[in-house]
């Protein structure tokens, strides 16, 4: 890891720092301290930001997902115009309306209706089916 931190290549340095941040978050997670939850989320967010800066959105998403930050990971994909990647993350985070809209944007209409149904959002489901 040290060799990546010493390289003159900015992208590789960012990538290495992002992995170090994620490893710190994982190590802290393994300690299973309830008081460390916010610190763990902070480390994962920092890791995600570094991965994004290094242009590695998939790794950024993995960091956010590891912290259970489903909506933040989904928002990151929406900012990159990838609704098909955002929708399942919104759904996993219980944001069924956002998931449905994202599925719709991705032309995944069956999934759009399924997520509204699984979230027991029947009024929204009826509205969606009527449009």
What's the quick description here?
The chain has helices at 2-6, 10-30, 37-53, 57-66, 70-79, 83-92, 96-105, 109-118, 122-130. It is mainly α and 131 residues long.
Structure description:
This protein is 78% helix and 0% strand. It has 131 residues and is an all-alpha fold. Helix 4 (57-66) packs antiparallel against helix 5 (70-79) and helix 5 packs antiparallel against helix 6. The radius of gyration is 18 Å and the shape is elongated. It starts with a helix and ends with a helix.
pLDDT under 50 segments (min length 5)? none
User: Regarding quaternary structure, how should these chains be classified?
Assistant: single chain
Order of helices and strands: HHHHHHHHH
| Biggest sheet descriptor | none
Q: What is the beta-strand fraction?
A: under 5%
> N-to-C terminal Cα separation, in Å?
54 Å
Total number of β-strand segments? 0
What is the domain tally?
2
Can you tell me the overall shape?
Answer: elongated
What is the number of helices?
9
Radius of gyration: 18 Å
Mean pLDDT: 91
What structural class results from the helix and strand content? mainly alpha
Q: Which range best describes the helical content: under 10%, 10-25%, 25-40%, 40-55%, 55-70% or over 70%?
A: over 70%
């Amino acid at each position: 890891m040290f060799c990546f931190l010493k390289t003159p290549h900015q992208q590789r340095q960012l990538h290495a720092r992002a992995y170090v941040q994620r490893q710190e978050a994982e190590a802290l997670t393994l300690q299973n301290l309830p008081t460390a939850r916010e610190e763990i989320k902070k480390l994962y967010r920092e890791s995600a930001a570094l991965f994004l800066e290094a242009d590695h959105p998939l790794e950024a998403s993995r960091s956010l997902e590891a912290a259970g930050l489903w909506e933040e990971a989904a928002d990151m994909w929406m900012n990159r115009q990838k609704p098909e990647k955002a929708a399942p993350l919104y759904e996993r985070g219980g944001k069924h309306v956002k998931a449905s809209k994202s599925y719709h944007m991705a032309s995944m209409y069956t999934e759009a209706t399924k997520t509204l149904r699984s979230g027991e959002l029947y009024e929204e489901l009826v509205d969606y089916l009527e449009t």
